[in-house]
Amino acid sequence: MKTSPEVERWFAEKKLPAEATLRRVRETILRADRRMSESVKYGTVAFAYDGDFATFVQVSKKQVSLMFNRGARIPGKFPHLEGAGPSARFMRFTDAKEVQARAAELSKIVVAWCSLTSAQRGSAKPTAKATDSSVGA
Q1: How would DSSP label each residue in the chain?
Q2: Which of 12, 58, 60, 112 could serve as a FRET partner for 43 with CA atoms 20 to 30 Å apart?
Q3: For residues 45 and 7, is the Cβ–Cβ distance under 8 A?
Q4: Please, which pLDDT band fits residue 121 given cuts at 50, 70 and 90?
Q5: How far apart are CA 25 and CA 94, in angstroms?
Q6: Closest Cα to residue 94, out of 59, 65, 55, 63?
């Protein structure tokens, strides 16, 4: 599991009431697929693989809320994934025990995301404009 010193500093500075739960969610996500990374973005912890995957939201509360930025694109049925809008989905945890109970489900969500193509994730990078060196030759 590859962790970021930047995220460790974030935890040290924030001293949050749900730190143990946040850390358990983080560990579950990072262990689920080695391609997943973490950083601090917009003042919170963000997880990514070839584009944004999820972020912790409302971190000062006792309940942990994980927002899947483009969660509607994640294939599969996940009983604890909340939301019906066109984009975001959420998963909420009351404590570290609940994270443990849902760890397999959360891991499957991570793997499903990482298995999508760039276009399916919505993070296709624009292609460089091709130049044909034979034109005009």
Answers
A1: ----HHHHHHHHHH--TTHHHHHHHHHHHHHH-TT-EEEEETTEEEEESSSEEEEEESTTSSSEEEEETTGGGS-S--TT-B--SSS-EEEEESSHHHHHHHHHHHHHHHHHHHHS-HHHHT-PPPPPPP--TTTT-
A2: 112
A3: yes
A4: confident
A5: 11
A6: 63
Whole-Å CA distances, 13 to 6, 16, 112, 125: 11, 9, 32, 34
Q: Tell me, rounded to whole angstroms, the distance of Cα 86 from its chain centroid.
A: 17
Q: How far apart are CA 117 and CA 122, in angstroms?
A: 9
Which two structure tokens, joined as six digits, stand for 47? 């997880």
On whether the CB atoms of residues 2 and 34 are closer than 8 A, the answer is yes
In 10 A of CB 28, how many CB atoms? 22
pLDDT in tens, 4-59: 999 999 999 999 999 999 999 999 999 999 999 999 999 999 999 988 999 999 99
85: which 2 tokens? 């809008």
Cα end-to-end span (Å), the chain:
53
pLDDT at 47: 98
